[in-house]
Amino acid sequence: MSEWTQTGKSNEWSMDEEARMATSAARDLSERAASHAKRVPSDSFDRAVRRALLLLAGAVVVLIAGIVVLVTLLW
Fold it and tell me: 19, 27 in Cβ contact below 8 A?
């Protein structure tokens, strides 16, 4: 079966070809979703590490501020 139909308009897709394209697009979408799902745990881990580092940096800033306040009050 040819990919093109002869319906009076040149280059018009047949219904079979449209169905094949839709099936292919759905398959590609599901494959992309599956590959994205495989990447999500590492993305979540990266996000958790970034959040932990930000919390650690915040704790360091609070600790330094507390030391500065104590030194200022005791000076």
Answer: no
**Does the pLDDT value for residue 1 go beyond 50?**
no
Q: Which letter does DSSP use for residue 4 in this model?
A: B
31-75: pLDDT as tens digits:
777 766 666 566 778 888 999 999 999 999 999 999 999 999 998
HEC-encoded secondary structure of 9-68: CCCCECHHHHHHHHHHHHHHHHHHHHHHHHHHHHHHHHHHHHHHHHHHHHHHHHHHHHHH
In angstroms, the CA 28 to CA 22 distance is: 10
Residue 27: CB atoms within 10 A of its CB come to: 10
